[in-house]
Amino acid sequence: MSAPTAAPARPVRKHPVDQVPPVPKLLTYGFQHVAAFYAGAVIVPLIIGGALGVTPEDMVKLIQADLLTCGIASLLQSIGIRIGKYRIGVQLPLLQGVAFAGVAPLITIGFNHGGGSPALPWIFGAVIVSGIVFFLVAPLIARAVRFFPPVVTGTVLTIIGVTLLPVAANHAIGGQLGLPGFDWSYSVMGASQGGHGDPTSGINMIFAIGTIIVILLLQRFFTGFLSTISVLVGLIVGFVAWYAILPSVPGSGVTFDWSAVSGAEAFWIASPFHYGPPQFAVGDIIAVLLVMMITAVETVGSLYATGDIVGKRISRQDISDALKADGISTALGGTMGSFPYTCFAENIGLVRVTGVKSRWIVAVAGGFMMILGLFPQVAAVVGMIPEPVLGGSALVLFAAVAITGIQTLSTVNFNDHRNLAVAGTGLAVGVYVMAFPGVTQAVPEWLQWYFSGGIAAGAFTTILLNIVFFHLVRRGPNVTTDAAGDVVTLDRVNGLSEDEFAALFHGVVQDNTWAIERAYAERPFASAAALADAFQDALLAGTDAEVHELLESFPDLGSAEADGSVVRESSGALADVDDDQRADLGELSAEYRAKFGFPLIISVKDVERYDQVVGIGWSRMDNSVRAERQAALVEVSKIVRHRFDDLIADANPITSARFGRFADLGTD
Asked: What is the pLDDT of residue 479?
């Protein structure tokens, strides 16, 4: 009797990130990534080179070196290098580009060394050293991410955007501002730009605002890919309109000279130290290292966003591998004549829009970028972009950076006065130094690196204050007030007996002792947020009987008893309801209770209008009893969160007054 034949081994299914699409799809989606990325990639060398007043030939070299290094960096991050267990690159669909955070500090470094092309070796020296140091300390940075919470990253991103907006505005008026004695009215790539450097010029304003309008129209009326490449299309439309219209307008002063493009080399590859041996200064290196720390936070955020999109869990090792790739790419950029590198958010959005998760798509895009970096004539065309058009596009990009920071700050609990102190002071110091860069001369030479620019001063201040307030000082935030009106800090909460804890927080969970007991068991609380989470977790851990008891402890929505509950009707969608509306609510609540056996609960603070409350209630009537118990528990969870936030607001009256918070504790 023959032995049974073994079943054939089932093929191992690759994760979508590791799958290699067919060649046509690789090329098509790879080109889409390049199109979405290109405008942001070339704007940085254009702005830095333009601000420093480098020669037209060197501007072409900067663009080429940038594109070439972008391609190499993207290949490194998406494909990665593995030597045994040691890996460089996170192997996710992440496209790398020059970090916006470096624009202002690098321009400042160039100014400090006289500007123009001779200043570039000082910039590249700082970039090279910073990249090497960053590569070596990447594993440590991956462990120190806790020192960069949203209050730090949001503030720093806001400072970056606010600091860069004047740089973009300077280009929008034609590049007028700069160091005393510098001639900022140079022509770009041999094409004279009329009205250059004049804030009163109608030409400059029309094309800057016109470029913004084109971008906004694309973002308003299109979605998906066209919306993603709106900045690139704005640059192209502005470029074509400038040279198609203005040369024929009498008195415009604009001429079109294609000789800079036709005279450029057909092929050139960036070589190491093309601008001369790198030069080094400690203050410059510290400034770029700070930029790298900021880009580290950006990279971590991009990793988590991409991980969510492609369905991969991001580990501490992944963060370390990605940061090591950033370090090598930055060191390579400085060697080849480019700047610090980080992940580009535009391409993360494109992964979400297309649904194509393969990292090999980004690898192909990196190959395209390398090819584009080999042809000087392409870079020469880019170098001809009129400054008002460039400035209009940059205004949109840099404003988006500031808005991203503000969006991050919206997740911060500013009822904790420490967050207000950290963010407010960091932003104030950053704007102070940005507005008056001469303050650098008011401090000793050994401290001038701290005030080397608005981004540096603001970011250093934010990071240091976060450490002081949250990691060195153990007092803890104000959480609530006791019966005597005295402030209760987090440390005091951690030392309370269970009875004392219940006396302070019974109203948060509608006097349900089982929820109080479970929340109390979670001590010690590391932060006010951890305390809030303990109450949320306690609700979810309840048995069926306990959850029913919790739901029954709430009054029917719209009843007289509900008027004194935590979520006061005056603070939500039920403000000033009339008798007829209250009667309708009573009818809804009665039918709801008859079907489900517990009161209708809606967190009305989260609803804008009365009709929406009624609509939500009737729509929930279609749920099963089990599904509706879960829906009601979600509403209770929202109410508990509001109650806790109000406790924090009461304990921090100055902060809560600034942010328009109103105490509403849910007690008699």
From this structure: 63
